[in-house]
């Protein structure tokens, strides 16, 4: 019992330290880096990297024998994650090519920030740390582990609108999206690259086509996104069955696992 209390206490304190460090210093670091390197993209990477320090320290305190790439699940096959995500998001690409026009002008720095950089760091923070560490190293089940991280993930996207209805839609979509990204991450043998590239491709297609001003979207925008989710689920299930990999999510571990899992 005391071991569990220590683990959760350090975990909560570590994330709280990260949250306030990010809140207080992210923009300052970003502005300083932009003035130094004259690049918004580089500044974005540096600001995210520096504000990750409290999470890294937390993990080294909690699990000193494990290396950081392992704890963030970045030591898995990149190609596998890329191919799973590319295959799964094909319906979005095809559907958007049919129903939407591409944007007239692309700002490549902003595109990089809103797609690859954001996807990479958000998956590390929300899926690998907030959800993954709880699921992998405690007895919390999938939904129990994913709830708080997904609520926070949804909350940080509420800047996209001031309209109450749109805010409700944004919150719901991003919350469910977080649950789905976590599922894809766990079911691809804890390969965070699957979630990173899935997040990247979904953001990329949303950015380069004239779909919507925010994530709430419209009928065709959300239809092809939903089709992509279904396709990826089927692809992962097929891949796991073909390679005799047991599914991670079962009814027995939705809330509490019968034994502690360390992956």
Automatic annotation (TrEMBL):
The keyword Transmembrane helix applies. It comes from Chryseobacterium cucumeris. It comes from the Bacteria. This is CPBP family intramembrane metalloprotease. Residues 111-204 form the CAAX prenyl protease 2/Lysostaphin resistance protein A-like domain. One of its GO terms (molecular function) is metallopeptidase activity. Pfam families: Rce1-like. The chain crosses the membrane at residues 7-29, 41-62, 82-99, 111-133, 140-158, 164-185, 192-211, 223-240. InterPro entries: Rce1/LyrA-like_dom (IPR003675). Keywords: Hydrolase, Membrane, Metalloprotease, Protease, Transmembrane, Transmembrane helix.
């Amino acid at each position: 019992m005391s071991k569990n209390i220590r683990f959760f206490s350090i975990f909560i304190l570590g994330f709280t330290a990260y949250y306030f460090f990010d809140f207080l210093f992210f923009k300052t670091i970003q502005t300083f880096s932009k003035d130094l390197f004259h690049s918004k993209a580089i500044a974005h990477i540096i600001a995210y990297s520096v504000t990750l320090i409290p999470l890294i320290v937390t993990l080294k305190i909690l699990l000193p024998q494990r290396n950081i790439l392992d704890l963030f699940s970045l030591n898995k096959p990149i190609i596998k994650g890329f191919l799973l995500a590319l295959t799964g998001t094909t319906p979005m690409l095809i559907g958007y090519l049919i129903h939407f026009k591409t944007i007239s002008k692309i700002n490549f720095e902003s595109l990089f920030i809103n797609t690859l950089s954001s996807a990479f760091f958000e998956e590390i923070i929300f899926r690998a740390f907030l959800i993954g560490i709880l699921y992998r190293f405690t007895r919390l089940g999938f939904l129990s582990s994913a709830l708080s991280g997904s609520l926070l993930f949804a909350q940080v996207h509420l800047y996209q609108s001031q309209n109450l209805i749109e805010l409700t839609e944004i919150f719901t979509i991003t919350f469910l999206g977080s649950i789905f990204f976590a599922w894809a991450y766990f079911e691809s043998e804890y390969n965070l690259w699957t979630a990173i590239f899935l997040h990247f491709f979904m953001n990329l297609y949303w950015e380069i086509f004239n779909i919507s001003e925010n994530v709430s979207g419209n009928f065709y925008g959300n239809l092809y996104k939903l089709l992509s989710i279904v396709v990826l689920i089927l692809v992962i299930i097929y891949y796991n069955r073909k390679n005799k990999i047991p599914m991670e999510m079962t009814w027995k571990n939705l809330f509490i696992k019968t034994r502690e899992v360390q992956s």
